[in-house]
């Protein structure tokens, strides 16, 4: 019985990767796929999800921070915990660069323990990277049309499995297409979701 109690205590004290996202369905579905494909021993993945009421960048940050406070010392928020925020750049730069500055500051103040993931023009661009080397992405509608040619029944809910190999392929493709700076400062299509994938691969390799 004593061994069982120690095991249970060790499990609750594992550091977490706390992830907030803008989308209510697709992103959360995808994050659950990541949890399944990367069953880590030393970290647990906590999906905070989306603020259903306000989805501009600053409110996404506020919602994330409120939920981090709820996971504070009494909930075993540990020094090695990692935080991640995922959101979109959106089409035609209808989100100004100024809106992202508080999130960039938040990331930089985390000293490597915070990731800011931005998808341009939408999260579906990242999904498209799982299946093609040269995603067509002049507009959100072009991304959606290209994705549905490969995934005809796609409707914001991920009703098909995505393999670990496809996730790694998407990461390698996205790295070649655009940098975080390009995504933030211009209308170029891109996604730095590969930073989250790289993090999971790094943690996984350290566990082997």
Explain this structure.
- This protein is of the alpha/beta class and 208 residues long.
- It contains nine helices and five strands, in the order H-E-H-E-H-E-H-E-H-H-H-H-E-H.
- A five-stranded mixed sheet has the order 2-1-3-4-5, sandwiched between helices.
- Strand 1, helix 2 and strand 2 form a beta-alpha-beta unit.
- Helix 7 crosses helix 9.
- It starts with a helix and ends with a helix.
- The relative contact order is 0.15.
- The N terminus is likely disordered.
Shape: globular
Strand content: 5-15%
User: What percent of the residues sit in helical stretches (DSSP H or I)?
Assistant: 40-55%
Number of strands: 5
Largest sheet: 5 strands, mixed
Strand order of the largest sheet: 2-1-3-4-5
* Alpha carbon gyration radius: 17 Å
Mean pLDDT, all residues: 87
- pLDDT under 50 segments (min length 5)? 1-11
Task: Provide a short characterization of the protein structure.
The chain has 208 residues and is of the alpha/beta class. It contains nine helices and five strands. It is globular.
Describe the protein's topology.
Blueprint: H1 2-12, E1 16-21, H2 26-37, E2 44-49, H3 57-70, E3 82-88, H4 97-108, E4 114-120, H5 123-128, H6 140-150, H7 164-177, H8 180-185, E5 190-191, H9 194-207
